[in-house]
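Quick one:
INPUT:
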């Protein structure tokens, strides 16, 4: 019984260590070379893309050994973390730069001074800067509050998330509740990215 409890503690700690995605810059790759992106976390994986030697703001959404999963084109692949330097200031929880979803299509852009929600066929909704609320006792989720033309409350969490439209993978899932004057609340669900594009 004690072994089972210890194993559970070790495994749950490892699962929590995955945490939120982080931003990296390519480092240690010669100017005339590239960092290969592969279909598996191994040097024997098929090359499916490449990163320039000066590439920055690369979002790593999952780690496996010394490999990081990142988006490449319309899919995702793996690059060696030996040649990627994690950007300083990676806090927990990070503030996503952009969140988005489908059915209906929407995009939430978060900025230090202002934020906005764009929904297909609707007027842009402006907000102030986001207020981030770390979850009590959890390192893998946080709350997000926006005030402006109505209110927007959200919970976002670390974990592999798909937009359902491509083979790209993201490291943050989000559920938000939008309340506008004269309208009932709307719940939207999607993914977020730390990268600006």
């Amino acid at each position: 019984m004690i072994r089972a409890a210890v194993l559970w503690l070790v495994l749950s700690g490892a699962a929590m260590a995955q945490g939120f995605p982080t931003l990296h810059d390519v480092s240690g790759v010669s100017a005339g070379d590239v960092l290969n992106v592969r279909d598996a976390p191994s040097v024997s994986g098929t090359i499916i893309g490449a990163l320039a030697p000066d590439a920055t703001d690369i979002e790593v959404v999952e780690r496996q050994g010394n490999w990081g999963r990142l988006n490449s084109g319309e899919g995702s692949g793996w690059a060696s973390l030996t040649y990627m330097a994690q950007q300083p200031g990676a806090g927990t929880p990070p503030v996503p730069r952009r969140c988005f979803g489908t059915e209906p299509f929407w995009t939430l852009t978060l900025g230090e001074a202002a934020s906005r929600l764009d929904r297909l066929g609707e007027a842009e909704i402006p907000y102030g800067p986001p207020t981030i609320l770390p979850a009590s006792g959890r390192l893998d989720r946080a709350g997000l509050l926006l005030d402006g033309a109505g209110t927007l409350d959200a919970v976002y969490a670390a974990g592999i998330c798909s937009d359902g439209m491509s083979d790209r993978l993201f490291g943050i899932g989000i559920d938000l509740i939008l309340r506008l004057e004269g309208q009932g609340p709307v719940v939207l669900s999607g993914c977020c990215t730390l990268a600006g594009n």
